[in-house]
Amino acid sequence: MEKPTLKYKRRLNRQRKLFFKKGGLSSLSDILLRMKEFYSGRDCIVERSRKEILTHTVDDFYLDVEAVSAYLIKNGLQKSHVAVVGENSYAWLVAFFAVTCIGAVAVPIDKELTDPEIANLCKKSDCEAIFFSRTYKKAAEEFCKEKNFLCVCLNGDAGENFEDFGKLLSEGRKEVLSNGFDKENFSAKPQDTAAIVFTSGTTGENKGVVLTHKNFASNVQGVLGVIEPVYSAISVLPMNHTYELSCCVLSALCLNAVLYINDSLRHLNRNLSEFKPEAMASVPLLMDNIYESILKKAKEEGKLPSLLKAASLSEKLLKIGIDARKPLFSSVRKSFGYRFPMMAVGGAPVNAERAKFLSLLGFNICIGYGLTEASPIVSINSNVLKESESVGKCVSCTECKIVSPDKDGIGEIAIKGTNVSKGYYNDEKATALSFKDGWFFTGDYGKKDKDGNLFVCGRKKNLIILDNGKNIFTEVLESFFTENSPLIKEAVVLEHTRRAGSESTKLLALAVSVDEELFGEKSDEEMFDEVSNEVYRLNEKLPAYKRIADVMAVRHDFEKTSTAKIIRRKVEEEYKNFTDSRDKSHA
Strand, coil or helix: what is 138? Predict the structure, then answer.
């Protein structure tokens, strides 16, 4: 998409005013109907199909959602739970909207899970149908082997017993032509459940967050109340995450900002340069990759000193009200099609210095804080240059408080608002623990300053958050290893940082205590080799992001409290000593 003309912007802005003049958004079906009413005829979603670039208009999207909805209604699924799993695509979005807008419940599932885990979540959420891409055919087969559920392949023919999405669309269109389609079928109410979104974890620990139509609608309005409106955006992160789905995709649809679907992270730079999107949602790892690629290119061209000098000059000029970023960094902008996208960064702790540096180059970096339970945004910092450590103020639909603050004002963050979930699916115990008196207790520690800016200080207990935003519940992963290997007596999952030059990656390490009787006659080296091989063998049963990258094995039991709980701090100290010693021996 070329830079929008002034005429284009004026016309679209008039239509946007009419879109929002109808009042507050109430549901996903409300969003769809308003899109059709106010943005008809305009481009909506762009994606690559092999080497071809396909452009779908608002009318295309509406009619395709209508056709799939008609098919689902004809097959009696308007009150059912329907899973959606696959790569980001136009078809994924059509399926999601078709399910939710008729009052059914969508279950977007993390595509990085194993096939058995995906099938298990389908069952756990009581799904009666699944939309899937061919990559997840085995998961669909596993889910459907016990009952004859509707299984629809989103990207082609998956074989016998599976419906083809293209054929389903054709059948749906025939149904609409034969019997008509009343827009009253898009009957989802604000209080109706729109989706069940599972938090990260292994099979036994996933919690299904129940999100209503009002939750999603409130989140979109909260985001748009802070973020400057744009005319195009690119979808990079997986749509099964509420961060991407709610903050990027739904916000773009409400603005009729043309939504480009990135086909692969490998092609992101190419797509940024070609499509020139104005905005994208990002995790810190993606932001870091952009930061590092800019520095690497400058270094290769011998321009790193001048780049750093220009960034320092940019900061000084901005302090006195002069914005010279465009002429100062025109060569950097060229790599991005002469347009730096606004990046809303969240999902994990953000490197404040890197965010500030990119802002000095001309990127508009916004740092957000949120949770799936909040649909997901709680707060947004849209001025990183002024305050790079904060996650900003709460969005309009959300209120937060610090529970039992210490002398430094740090306590657990609790939130409430129209974007906050009503609880976990079929899990009264977990709901009662986290949702109390109208407040959701996040499990995160934080504080507020005198201006109401929120600062997140750390996660509660032992949660590990990887660079890509994935949550690792350590106790569950520890149980997996101890339960699946006779060699592993005790296990503690820890953070492991792998460094390569100036770059670092947060991975997982496993500290193992072995049964001495099994290794009494073997050397420490032989014991270590056996345990390491066992851990890496078990790794193959885990999703890639949960796999162990480093191992420490000891013959003694880990130090425990009086209630027989392992003192994790002691294990962390022992692991640090182990890695320090290993590094010295390799030096």
Answer: helix
Answer whether 355's CB lies under 8 Å from 345's CB: yes
Closest CA relative to residue 277, chosen from 47, 33, 548 = 47
The widest CA-to-CA distance across the chain, in whole angstroms, is 82
Q: How far apart are CA 66 and CA 78, in angstroms?
A: 13
Residue among 253, 233, 250, 234 at smallest CA distance from 242: 250
Q: In the chain, pLDDT over 90 holds for what percent of residues?
A: 71
Rounded to an integer, what distance in angstroms lies between the CA atom of residue 310 and that of residue 329?
8
Please tell me whether residue 212 adopts helix, strand or coil conformation.
strand
Write down the mean pLDDT value for the chain: 91
Contact 413, 454 (CB under 8 A): yes
Tokens of 422: 């009503």
DSSP 7: H
pTM score, whole prediction: 0.81
Name the strand (E) or helix (H) holding 141. helix 137-144
For residue 563, is pLDDT > 70? no
Which residues face 551 on adjacent strands? 510
Give CA–CA dist 360/384, Å, rounded: 10
Query: How does residue 1 score in pLDDT terms, banded at 50, 70 and 90?
Result: low
DSSP secondary structure letters along 519-585 = HTTS-HHHHHHHHHHHHHHHHTTS-GGG---EEEEESSPPPB-TTS-B-HHHHHHHHHHHHHHHHHH
b (16+ CB within 10 A) / e for 191-201: ebbbbbbbbbb
Measured CA to CA in angstroms, residue 369 lies from 92, 222, 254, 382 at distances of 26, 13, 22, 12
Instruction: Give dist(CA 31, CA 256) in Å, integer.
Output: 11
Least Cα distance to 332 among 376, 383, 272 occurs for 272
Bigger pLDDT: 553 or 497? 553
Whole-number pLDDT of residue 416: 97
